[in-house]
Design brief:
Among the domains are: 214 residues, 3-Layer(aba) Sandwich (Rossmann fold); 106 residues, Helix Hairpins, CATH 1.10.287. Helix content is 64%, strand content 11%. The chain is built from 23 helices and 13 strands. A hairpin with a 2-residue loop joins β1 and β2. α10 packs across α18, α11 packs across α17 and α14 runs antiparallel to α15.
């Protein structure tokens, strides 16, 4: 990404920037100017927010700064930064609202960190930069340590040193080295676990032998010939699983239920025979005659009425009961009547509305044609011509026409001014009438379109007149049918009562006759049942109760014997399940013992190998310490300090004290540089830069340190963004700083974006950084903002122009 350049920036309602501004950035140098509060810092912060998703200088001042980024009176804002790499464009965007920032696209974390630390120097950080590095300490997460690790490539050495340090003390090894303490604990745990597992195996063996002994006793009681053992469990399972006992028990259960059913039949027959009298045949005949007379008188009419209802409602099944039929038929017919009434009313309303809508559309069409005719008579340019003539009146001083230079008095008696005023009034009236007719025609056109849609909709769903007439006839037929049914309700109810009485009388006579023969049949059934279960039939003098008791005792004895055998079978199956479960658990314990024994051997071998590796690590740590210390001293003294010294001396040639990092000469395990000042003439080092340098030179030291740090690392992003870095510099410092920027831009390939607020300094830098060769370029951006208007960004692009004046002079 080293060839990536900033192309343009669009900012809307961000911090002090009100409204929208567009700032082009596609130049080698971008010079930004504006008064205090005009938005220079906001513009540079917008670049940082779009690229990294945050503003680092604001985050350190206020953790909730994101809620303050949106312009105070705005509801939303945005930032869009475009970059260009060869011919490919990439955009970075962030959206603003009252709740904060939504970063849509930004650099990855590594590139974002490089921009914040090495490419962008905000105004608020310039005065704190030296203090940040001076107070960084020797912690691995400090800014100085992170920079040195990246600069010198010490990440692997640092990782080795940090990882090998705990090897000195075995107690630290147990705490820090992954697996050491765990392996020791695992070995101890496995010792205890193996003892517990052996104890569990012995216990399971005892359970298996006890269950086998009990299973042997059960098989002897059940008279099985199979031998019980761990290897014959399948044969025992097959013997216990035979269904002979369960089938016999099920047959006995059925016989008990059948005996209970026979007893209930005998009891019911005895109770009915002793308490009920045979119904009188005369009463049954009377009920039948009454229903027959009713059926002869009203039956045909009821049949016809039912047929009519079923033809009217073919999809509905009517109940057979006469009373229920009347109620259900009236209910269904009234529902059908209401539906038909609604459909007929709606159809007639739509027919009437269809005719009315057509009349309204015809009236609207005639009105539109009238308006079109009047519009055709009016000139569409009447208003424009009237405006032109009205402006010409200011040029009329006499009767000479300013257009054709002709004297108006030659063609008319009146004055030219009065004639022009009269024309202006007539043309103004025509223009006003033209506007009124245009609005009226638009309203009429909307009405015509609405009526067309309504006519099409009604035509699509309206019913024809013959269909409406057919629906009306069906509704009238249903109303007549409802009246007929309501007239017959009392007759239908009487018929239902007579029919129910006839059916009840017939059933009573039939039931009474059947119960007198049931006792004889019940005795024969009970006697046959006794023979079927293997006992003697009923004697002639044996009562029902005695016979039933005898049979119940026989069945109960057989059931008790089979229940005992089934219980022993279930107990045997339980013992089998317990034995198999215990054998499975014993097998699992054997597997665990084998696995844990192998794990114990592995842990013991791992501890022996780990101790050997610890000895090797201590030797490696000693070598890493020596190599790392040598690299740090060499790189700080020969690279960073030299580059910082060259930059500082270039900007402050008269300052005798030069800032630098001092590195201990002895071996060090951690980074411990200190900020000092060195005198140009040599000698002992001075104090910190804050104690030895003036305010202006201290600012210069911080600026040159930032540039030195930027140049000391690989060029991941070719940008250098500086926010007003020359506030405390004098003219000499500024002149040297301009030369430094020119060198960075034109020789080191950096795209420089710098903001200043002083107008004279802006003009000076514009002159010093102007293009010096054909591919060079300079962009100047001037920001301004009023109390009641949006921010404005004026850009000027300066390109290279070859000087030809000297050639001409020569």
């Amino acid at each position: 990404m080293s060839d990536l350049i900033l192309k343009s920036l669009d900012v809307t309602n961000f911090r002090s920037i009100r409204g929208h501004i567009h700032a082009p950035l596609d130049a080698k140098v971008v010079l930004l100017h504006g008064e205090n509060g005009a938005g220079k810092t906001s513009l540079l912060s917008a670049i940082e927010l779009a690229l990294t998703g945050g503003v680092q200088s604001l985050a350190s001042a206020d953790p909730e700064y994101e809620k303050q980024l949106l312009f105070r009176s705005a509801s939303e804002g945005s930032i869009l930064l475009r970059t260009l790499e060869e011919k490919f464009e990439r955009t970075f965007k962030a959206n603003l609202n009252a709740n904060g920032v939504e970063s849509v696209d930004a650099l990855d974390e590594k590139e974002a960190a490089f921009f914040r630390e090495r490419a962008f120097l905000p105004q608020s950080l310039l005065g704190q930069l030296l203090q940040i590095y001076q107070d960084a300490g020797n912690d691995a997460s400090s800014p100085l340590a992170q920079f040195v690790g990246k600069l010198l490539g010490l990440d692997r050495l640092d990782a080795l040193e940090a990882g090998l340090k705990p090897l000195v003390d075995v107690r630290n090894v147990r705490k820090i080295v992954d697996g050491w303490q765990a392996t020791e604990n695992e070995k101890t745990r496995l010792d205890r676990l193996l003892a517990d597992e052996q104890q569990r195996r012995d216990s399971l063996n005892e359970q298996i032998q006890s269950a086998l002994l009990e299973l042997t006793n059960l098989c002897s009681s059940l008279e099985f010939s199979v031998k019980v053992g761990e290897d014959t469990l399948d044969e025992v399972t097959e013997a216990l699983g035979k269904t002979s006992d369960s089938d016999a028990f099920a047959q006995l259960t059925d016989q008990q239920r059948r005996l209970a059913s026979i007893n209930r039949e005998i009891d019911e027959a005895q109770s009915a025979t002793g308490s009920e009298a045979l119904p009188s045949p005369t009463n049954a005949e009377d009920a039948s005659k009454e229903f027959a007379r009713w059926d002869a008188e009203y039956g045909p009419r009821v049949t016809s009425l039912r047929g009519t209802v079923e033809s009217m409602l073919p999809n509905i099944s009517m109940p057979s009961d006469l009373s229920q039929f009347a109620d259900e038929a009236v209910k269904r017919l009234r529902t059908e009547q209401n539906q038909l009434t609604g459909r007929v009313s709606q159809a007639r309303a739509e027919i009437a509305r269809y005719a009315t809508a057509q009349d309204e559309r015809d009236v609207a069409l005639r009105q539109r044609d009238t308006i079109d005719e009047e519009l055709a008579r009016l000139s569409s340019s009447a208003g424009s011509l009237g405006s032109v003539l009205a402006e010409m009146t200011s040029f009329l001083v006499d009767d000479i026409c300013p257009v054709c230079d002709r004297n108006f008095s030659e063609v008319s008696k009146g004055s030219l001014a009065e004639h022009v005023h009269s024309k202006v009034r007539a043309l103004s009236a025509s223009a006003e009438r033209l506007l009124t007719l245009g609005r009226t025609r638009g309203e009429v056109q909307v009405t015509i379109e609405r009526l067309d849609r309504e006519i099409e909709s009604i035509a699509a769903r309206r019913l024809e007149e013959n269909v409406v007439a057919e629906l009306d006839r069906r509704r009238a037929s249903i109303e007549a049918l409802i009246v007929d049914i309501e007239d017959m309700i009392e007759t239908l109810q009487a018929g239902a009562r007579l029919r129910a009485a006839d059916i009840a009388a017939r059933r009573a006579v039939s039931g009474s006759q059947s119960r007198h023969v049931s006792l004889a049949a019940a005795r024969e059934t009970l006697s046959a049942f006794a023979v079927s279960i293997g006992t003697t039939a009923l004697d002639e003098g044996e009562s029902f109760q005695a016979a039933a008791s005898r049979l119940e005792e026989l069945l109960s004895a057989q059931v008790a014997r089979l229940e005992g055998r089934l219980s022993m079978r279930r107990s045997g199956a339980t013992h089998l399940d317990n034995i198999r479960s215990a054998m499975t658990r014993r097998q699992g314990v054997d597997t665990e013992i084998s696995s844990d024994s192998a794990s114990w051997k592995s842990a013991d071998l791992a501890l022996e190998q780990a101790q050997g590796l610890r000895d090797q690590g201590l030797a490696i740590r000693s070598a890493v310490d020596k190599i790392r210390s040598a690299i740090i001293r060499r790189e700080f003294n020969d690279r960073l300090n030299r580059l910082w010294r060259d930059l500082f001396v270039r900007l402050a040639p008269s300052e005798p004290f030069v800032p630098a990092f001092r590195i201990p000469q002895s071996s060090t395990q951690r980074l411990q540089p200190k900020l000092i000042t060195e005198h140009r003439d040599g000698g002992e080092a001075g104090g910190t830069p804050g104690a030895m340098l003036s305010a202006g030179n201290l600012n210069t030291a911080a600026l040159t340190l930032f540039i030195a740090l930027h140049l000391s690392v690989p060029k991941e992003l070719p940008w250098l963004v500086l926010d007003d870095p020359v506030q405390s510099m004098d003219d000499v410092h500024i002149a040297h700083f301009a030369a430094l920027l020119r060198t960075l831009s034109k020789e080191h390939g950096r795209q420089v974006v710098i903001a200043v607020h002083d107008r004279q300094l802006f003009e000076y830098l514009k002159l010093e950084l102007s293009p010096a060769f054909p591919d060079d370029s300079l962009l100047t951006l001037e920001l301004s903002r009023g109390p009641r208007r949006d921010s404005v960004c004026l850009s000027t692009r300066l390109s290279y122009k070859e000087e030809t004046a000297l050639f001409v002079a020569a």
